[in-house]
Design goal:
The chain is mainly α. The chain contains 7 helices and no strands. It starts with a helix and ends in a 17-residue tail after the last helix. The protein has a domain of 76 residues. α2 packs across α6.
């Protein structure tokens, strides 16, 4: 059975190379190179952090921009459809949830005050069918704008079960 200490010492001798002191020379060089790598890594991490912060600011700015657009579109819808104010006052959280769903699923419809007003009116009169109203809107949009359709074309890739 081999002694782990003997194995370690044999490996250490082998690392020293053919010339005595070569291992020390290479070890010193390795530590200098490692120091340079460490400095380079610290610089890369620093610049990465700056890039990440800039990306974070960009994401935050985009969220603010979208929120401003959403507020503007909502106000425009309410101005063009004064009857919606009564519907909103009856159940504000449900009304706002309907608008958020509309905005998420069909953003171009939410931006148009006439279309969004019509859909919000339908969802407010029939809140139990709000989901199907939005689904039908999405299907209608897909039919009239083929480039936005979810259809993948002919069923070439169908698999049989």
């Amino acid at each position: 059975m081999a002694n782990p200490l003997d194995d370690y010492l044999m490996a250490k001798k082998a690392d020293q190379g053919i010339l005595p002191g070569m291992g020390r020379f290479m070890g010193g060089m390795g530590s200098r190179t490692l120091g340079n790598l460490r400095t380079g890594a610290e610089e890369a991490i620093g610049s990465g952090a700056v890039g990440l912060a800039a990306t974070g600011l960009g994401v935050a700015a985009l969220k603010v921009y979208r929120a401003i657009g959403k507020r503007k579109d909502f106000k425009s819808m309410m101005e063009h459809n004064p009857d919606l104010q009564e519907m909103q006052s009856r159940d504000p959280s449900k009304f706002n949830a309907h608008y958020n769903s509309l905005r998420t699923l069909v953003p171009s419809y939410a931006q148009d005050p006439i279309i969004s007003g019509s859909l919000m009116r339908s969802m407010s009169f029939n809140p139990e069918h709000a989901g199907s109203i939005l689904t039908q809107s999405m299907e209608t949009r897909s039919k009239h704008a083929p480039s936005l359709s979810m259809d993948m074309g002919p069923a070439k890739f169908q698999t049989k079960l």
